């Protein structure tokens, strides 16, 4: 793993600072910020970070890509960066080259299922697919007689019912009805729907953690500016303690998410330990989004509840990201089952495994 | 960005895993020989001197300290692993743990050489027990309100006053205490406290046990009457203990003992629920495991910062805050989840017994080692709010 190339993150942060300033975006009701941002990200090769050079990508490490997603969370960016990265990663698993432009992954929920028939045609219906409407291609994980396949599909081959998640981002239903893919190949051993959901879950965890970092940041700043009862509200002990709890939630989310990212980046395969890391990150980050977001709004008072204020860009997205690639209740049930099957005496060895 | 609260994903090095195996094997041996029963956590008196000596023989007390004082010069991460395994097994570590965690490091930093040479090796051998004398009847959270006086006399100080809530004072050989050597100043109400090494079991000290709601005796009141402490037992700067006492707390706050005190109920729940949990139990267990895992990652990360020579005061406070709130809620969450465990389930009885004890333990967890409110104040300061 190359060490120092957080040049990826630096590049991304510079682009976000220039073209994804939350206040500017919030003021721009027409969405005209999107194209320049996406173009800049694409020119820097960021959406295809996880695609090797020989498959059309920029070949960054998994670790750098995860760090990039955390930065994207800090700016609450609402372009399909995470989705395109995941799609590129998935395609690369089967050595399928990534095309240019926005992509997303299908399915985005552990319960939805796409099937592939003997001719390679794909069918199935998947809900809550992020940015399906904006995507030019889908990276699809499908089940067939011979196991799991990975396919690249032209988005026009699917039917899309558009929807919005609680963060006002596209979250669409995608129906494939015997859709012919651009390419389809068998997935390598160890890559299946669970793997995809864990990868997606960790991506979302890093985004949630980033959003919480920013919520903490703007909440602390606001409390040091807002005057009530002739004092800055930051001087009230109750407010301080609320912010201390927000700091705790933000720190917990970041710790869980970066630990899971590190686990995946260094893992040879998705074993139980990686499963624990990734599932726990999604669960804990989702809980932090709920608790932390609540506190950030509390500190901001009514102003934070207005559409003019940027707080909702973070708080609502963090809440929405809980739902993608398995909600915290889904993963909690699965993790609980895993723990139960391994048995009581194996719980601590699992937790203490690294 | 306001506060860069980064908890880097430290991984324990390979040699820690080797050590972990050794500790597990040792603890299994001790259970087999009947030294302690992990299913009766801290129930009866947990002071088992022979156990402590055997831990000392293994080199697991004072393991990060210099070899010339009996230490092993091992890393904080190795110490971390030993603490975890002892805690999870409910091993009777009471006699040496305070010295290992806090008192030893204070002596290393502030005691004169001959005292270090005398005491530290004995700590490492598991022979002596330390108590911490900070709280007083009118001074708990507000440490700087402490009144117990140390009056200068020939060759030392005379101590008069009362310490309270002093864990293990009844078995302790030494106490590290703060006493008032001069009044606070107008500019600095923290001024005037000095840290002392006190040899217990001497005339002039009376230790009165105080029972706890768990049915245990751990607390004591310690009354000093014209008790003499020699000059060379002053630790650090006269009147300047506040700086020393606050940095000591970073060690006290972030270790695995700060979220594992009621851990055993989770294991027993998993055992009672069995291999095929219903959805509700599975979800409950999954969430608790995710929370535990996250806290442990944070705690390991702070151990890594200590290893790197940093002073992660805010990070340690966050781990203590989240950790103790969690370990306090844990027995109640487990009770909730255990409501539908089959009457005939294996280990149901153990689970109930454990729960009973954990529920009685829970109220103290957010108080010992600094209350939640005080910690949140420290975090708030770290955020630049005060
Ligand atoms: C199991 C256990 C073991 C202990 N062992 C030791 C020991 O070995 N040695 C030792 O010296 N002490 C020990 N203590 C004492 C412990 O450090 C104190 O109990 C603790 O510091 C709180 O002090 P207090 O009990 O006087 O409560 P108080 O300080 O009276 O606090 C009462 C309540 O008021 C709140 N409060 C106080 N001040 C503020 C403030 N400024 N802002 C907001 N809220 C505030 C507190 O958070 C708390 O909720 C132990 C305590 C326990 C429970």
Please give the number of β-strands of chain B: 8
Ligand set? flavin-adenine dinucleotide
Could you give the distance between the termini of chain B?
A: 17 Å
Average per-residue pLDDT of chain B, rounded, comes to: 94
Largest interface: A-B, 57 and 60 residues
Radius of gyration of chain A: 20 Å
Q: Percent helix among the residues of chain B?
A: 40-55%
SSE series of chain A: HHHHHEEEEEEEEHEEHHHHH
Structural class of chain A: alpha+beta
Q: Tell me about the biggest sheet of chain A?
A: 4 strands, mixed
Task: Walk me through what this model shows.
Chain A has about 350 residues and is an alpha+beta fold. Helices cover about 50% and strands about 15% of the residues of chain A. Chain A is built from eleven helices and ten strands. Chain A has helices at about 5-20, 20-25, 35-45, 60-75, 80-95, 195-225, 235-265, 270-300, 310-320, 330-340, 345-350; strands at about 105, 115, 120-130, 135-145, 145-155, 160, 170-180, 185, 225-230, 230. In chain A, the strands form three sheets. A four-stranded mixed beta sheet of chain A has the order 1-4-5-8, covered by helices on one side. Chain B is of the alpha+beta class and about 375 residues long. Helix content of chain B is about 45%, strand content about 15%. Chain B has eleven helices and eight strands. Chain B has a four-stranded mixed beta sheet. A four-stranded antiparallel beta sheet of chain B has the order 2-3-7-6, with no helix packed on it. In chain B, β6 and β7 form a beta hairpin. Chain B starts with 13 loop residues before the first helix and ends with a helix. The mean pLDDT of chain B is about 95. Bound molecules: flavin-adenine dinucleotide (FAD).
Main traits of this protein?
heterodimer, A: 354 residues, alpha+beta, 4-stranded mixed beta sheet, 4-stranded antiparallel beta sheet, 11 helices, 50% helix, globular, B: 4-stranded mixed beta sheet, 8 strands, binds flavin-adenine dinucleotide
